[in-house]
C-alpha cells in the first residue's frame, strides 16, 4: 500500500426524489460546501469507493446497487495545498461521478475531522453553494440523470 493518495476519486451526489441535495461543509475550509468525495484506495472498485466514502462521511450505509454510476469523469488540477498527499509530480486528479437517491431527507452523522456541518438544499441552491465546479455541474445535471 502506497503512502500517497491515488489521483482517482469519486464524487457522490446524494439526493431525494424531489431533488433536495445533501451538502457537507469542509472542516479544513469553513464555508466550502460539497457533496461526498474521496479517493480510491488500492484494490477498490469505484463503486466500492463511493459506498465507503458515503458511509465514512455521512453514516449512511447504502448497498452498492443503490448507487448510480454516471459514466462521467472530470479531470482537474489538485489544489497546491493538497499535493503533498500525492506522489511527487502528481498534479491532476480524475474524479468519477455517482449519485445516490434516498427516499427522504434524513439526518447524517458527519465525520468531524472532515466536515463541520451538513444541510439539505433544493438542487439549484445546492449547486450555487458548491465551491467545486465539477460538483456544481453534476448537481445541475441531476434532473436529467434521475428517473422520475
Characterization of this structure:
This protein is an alpha+beta fold and 148 residues long. It has a single domain (8-145), classed as Nucleoside Triphosphate Pyrophosphohydrolase, CATH 3.90.79.10. 22% of the residues lie in helices and 34% in strands. It has 3 helices and 7 strands. It has helices at residues 46-58, 123-129, 133-145; strands at residues 8-15, 20-26, 33-34, 36-39, 67-77, 92-101, 115-122. The strands form 2 sheets. The protein has a 4-stranded mixed sheet with strand order 4-1-6-5. Strands 3-2-7 form a 3-stranded antiparallel sheet. A hairpin with a 6-residue loop joins strand 2 (20-26) and strand 3. Helix 2 packs antiparallel against helix 3. The radius of gyration is 15 Å and the shape is globular. The mean pLDDT is 94.
What are the main properties of this structure?
four-stranded mixed sheet, 148 residues, three-stranded antiparallel sheet, globular, alpha+beta, single chain, Nucleoside Triphosphate Pyrophosphohydrolase
Order of helices and strands: EEEEHEEEHH
- Unreliable sequence segments: none
Integer tally of domains: 1
> Outline, from the CA principal axes?
globular
Gap from first CA to last CA: 42 Å
CATH architectural designation: Alpha-Beta Complex
Largest sheet: spatial strand order = 4-1-6-5
What is the CATH T-level topology?
Answer: Nucleoside Triphosphate Pyrophosphohydrolase
Number of strands: 7
Amino acid at each position: 500500500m502506497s503512502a500517497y493518495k491515488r489521483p482517482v476519486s469519486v464524487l457522490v451526489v446524494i439526493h431525494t426524489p424531489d431533488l433536495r441535495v445533501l451538502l457537507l461543509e469542509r472542516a479544513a475550509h469553513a464555508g466550502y460546501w460539497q457533496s461526498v468525495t474521496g479517493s480510491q484506495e488500492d484494490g477498490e472498485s469505484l463503486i466500492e469507493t463511493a459506498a465507503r466514502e458515503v458511509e465514512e462521511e455521512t453514516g449512511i450505509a447504502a448497498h452498492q446497487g443503490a448507487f448510480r454510476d454516471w459514466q462521467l469523469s472530470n479531470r482537474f488540477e489538485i489544489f497546491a495545498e493538497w499535493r503533498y498527499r500525492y506522489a511527487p509530480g502528481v498534479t491532476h486528479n480524475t474524479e468519477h461521478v455517482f449519485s445516490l437517491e434516498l427516499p427522504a431527507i434524513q439526518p447524517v452523522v458527519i465525520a468531524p475531522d472532515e466536515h463541520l456541518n451538513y444541510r439539505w438544499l433544493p438542487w439549484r441552491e445546492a449547486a450555487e453553494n458548491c465551491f467545486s465546479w465539477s460538483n456544481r455541474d453534476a448537481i445541475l445535471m441531476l434532473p436529467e440523470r434521475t428517473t422520475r
